[in-house]
Amino acid sequence: MNPFHPVKRLIVVVLFEGVDLLDVTGPPEVFSLARRETEDAAGYEVVLAAGTTDPVTTAAGVRVLPDATFEAMSTRRIDTLIVPGAVEVDDRRRVRALTDPEVVEWVSRLAERTRRVTSVCVGAHILAAAGLLDGKRATTHWSTARQLADDHPAVEVDADPIFVREGDVWTGAGISSCLDLSLALVADDLGEAVALRVARQLVMYLKRPSGQSQFSVPLEQVSTTRRVEELRHHIMRNLAEPLTVADLAARLHVSDRQLTRIFKTELGTTPHAYIESARVEAARHQLESTDATLDRLATTCGFGTVDTLVRAFRRRLGTTPTEYRRRFRTHLAGGHRPHAPAP
User: What are phi and psi of 336, to 5 degrees?
Assistant: First the structure.
């Protein structure tokens, strides 16, 4: 592929009949937010391209109108080509990825004019059919990973990561991971700070007038390994439990020392610090939206005592739970809303 670096970052999303809807709509939302967060300095221009400009019916039954044809895009320099996928499910609930030879041919041609090629979910099968994954490590949705490996032995299939980057070729796993992949593309273009601002908009609330950041602490860092993501979800579901390093290591089938290394590598922190951040986040939400006492919060969020809860809040947020509730509460008993605090 030719290393084009256009001033305007042209993002082309490939459309075809039966394509998965979220594969198509997820990435443009991320790039749109990146434009907003940078006041359009990101330079992203997203174009939905198909064989014709007739409406395309997605797997969800929602019709999408292409912006342009593949033919029209073949004369332009493309920054990023995003290839979504499609599947069929038989009467035994077996899933199989579909590849249209005409789409494969167009993807192959467009890739020659593209700086960076990406696939979303089972779109990896289209990239593989176009020969773009030969000799490369790639991922796809876990349900079609075996098919990808069987159909394309020249591809090193890894079904575990959320996304894989091999030079200028990126592949994403499950459908929702199109957001993780798109955020990684934004980080590659514009830096981690911009990507994190976009992630905050996607996963939590917008900032309130008071200026309090409304993003989730546990979501600041996203692991690229599925088993670590599952462990993170386990932690969030069981905050009231002890959640010792030994217990978490046993759940992941690794040693205590190895668990600590995994957290440092994947999440940039220690297990203890991560768990405390998650507990503070859970307590924040309850302080904002419930009348729960501090004693109850200390118990349900896993702090054990109010003193431990207070110390964690001072360490993480530079305030106390009581002061936090006074300033950032969203409602009062009886449905009355407080006035926004003075700046």
Answer: -80, 140
Cα–Cα dist 341/99, whole Å: 56
298 sits in which H/E element: helix 294-300
CB neighbour list of residue 96: distance below 8 Å, 6 or more residues apart: 87, 88, 89, 90, 144, 147
List the structure tokens of 299.
Answer: 């118990």
Q: Could you list the pLDDT tens digit for every one of the 343 residues in the chain?
A: 444 443 589 999 999 999 999 999 999 999 999 999 998 888 999 999 999 999 999 999 999 999 999 999 999 999 999 999 999 988 877 889 999 999 999 999 999 999 999 999 999 999 999 999 999 999 998 889 889 999 999 999 987 677 889 999 999 887 677 888 898 899 899 988 888 888 878 853 322 222 233 234 444 455 557 788 889 889 999 999 999 999 999 999 999 999 999 988 888 789 998 999 899 989 988 998 899 999 999 999 999 999 999 999 988 777 889 988 887 775 443 444 433 333 2
Nearest to 10 by CA among 57, 39, 49: 49
- d(CA 17, CA 167) in angstroms, rounded, equals 30
In this prediction the pTM is 0.61
Euclidean distance between CA atoms 112 and 125, whole angstroms? 18
